[in-house]
């Protein structure tokens, strides 16, 4: 199965969103967008992905903070737009110890349960470290025929260097690449880094529009560099959700599967098969989707 082919088919797509919601300010945009596109997305569940940086004291604390942020954000979306809050679940509290050993979590179990109960394909859209998704695949290998994984992670193949989501759990990334599961990768540097949002554009569309709009604006405003006059912010995570809503907003090619080395470089063709690698996203088309949904 090619995920891009499935996305181009008309109709509603069943989706699970796996998100490290408290890590930055862009996951909230992606979660809101997923809830506000019922004509295209059936959001079956949201799962809390772990992370560890200066906003968390540990991998487990990052997951717990993300879980709480999912609750805050979904309630604001429901209050502002009158939509239903999807079920959401706690995720992994530790990284995978190696590429073959899953980490037990409610998220991994629910991903498998939801996928196996549905007749069609469930798109598991991951916008953080991919521990929950990899663990679900390893623990329940039968779901490989029932899901398509869409992941914001890694950099474009022509870039070198660490990327936060991939670095968060390299073993999990390697488990997903090696699993053979249909995979569509939205790389960060070189591709999704194109999704630059000007702060004045954000304020124009969302400030005063709703409690959700004010919350999103306030979150972004906290990131303003000291003394900056003109500044902007990459809103990474909306790329994947917008791609489900409108697959015309990105282009992808089929590439050999890879393994991530310890230094986070790619070993191309290290595992059998191919996957889909996004090469371009349409900045204006994606932000038009975002604002058209959030401004209703």
Which short descriptors sum up this protein?
Inosine-uridine Nucleoside N-ribohydrolase, Chain A; two-stranded antiparallel ribbon; 296 residues; alpha/beta
Please provide a written account of the structure.
- The chain has helices spanning 3-8, 27-35, 59-81, 106-117, 131-139, 164-168, 170-179, 199-206, 211-221, 238-245, 283-294; strands at residues 13-19, 41-48, 88-89, 122-126, 147-152, 183-186, 196-198, 232-234, 250-256, 258-260, 266-268, 274-281.
- It has 296 residues and is of the alpha/beta class.
- It has a single domain (3-294), classed as Ribonucleoside hydrolase-like (Inosine-uridine Nucleoside N-ribohydrolase, Chain A, Alpha-Beta Complex).
- It has an 8-stranded mixed sheet, sandwiched between helices.
- The two termini are 35 Å apart.
- The mean pLDDT is 96.
């Amino acid at each position: 199965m090619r995920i891009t082919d499935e996305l181009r088919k008309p109709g509603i797509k069943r989706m699970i969103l796996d998100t490290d919601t408290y890590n930055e300010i862009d996951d909230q945009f992606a979660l809101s967008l997923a809830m506000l596109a019922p004509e295209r997305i059936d959001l079956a569940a949201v799962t809390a992905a772990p992370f560890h940086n200066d906003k968390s004291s540990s991998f487990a604390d990052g997951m717990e903070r993300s879980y709480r942020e999912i609750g805050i954000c979904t309630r604001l979306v429901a209050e502002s737009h009158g939509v239903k809050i999807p079920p959401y679940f706690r995720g992994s509290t530790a990284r995978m110890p190696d590429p073959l050993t899953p980490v037990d979590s409610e998220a991994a179990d629910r991903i498998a349960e939801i996928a196996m109960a549905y007749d069609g394909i469930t798109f598991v859209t991951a916008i953080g470290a991919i521990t929950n998704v990899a663990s679900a695949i390893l623990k329940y290998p039968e779901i490989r025929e029932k899901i398509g994984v869409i992941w914001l992670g890694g950099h474009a193949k022509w870039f070198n260097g660490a990327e936060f989501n991939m670095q968060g759990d390299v073993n999990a990334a390697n488990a997903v690449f090696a699993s053979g599961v249909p995979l569509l990768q939205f790389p960060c540097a070189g591709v999704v880094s194109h999704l630059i949002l000007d702060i004045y554009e954000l304020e124009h569309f969302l400030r005063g529009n709703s409690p959700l709009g004010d919350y999103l604006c306030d979150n972004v405003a906290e990131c303003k560099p000291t003394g900056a006059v003109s500044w902007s912010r990459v809103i990474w995570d909306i790329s994947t959700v917008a791609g489900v809503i409108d697959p015309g907003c990105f282009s992808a090619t089929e590439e050999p599967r890879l393994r991530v080395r310890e230094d986070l470089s790619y070993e191309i063709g290290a595992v059998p098969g191919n996957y889909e690698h996004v090469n371009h996203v349409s900045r204006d088309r994606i932000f038009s989707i975002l604002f058209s949904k959030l401004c209703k």
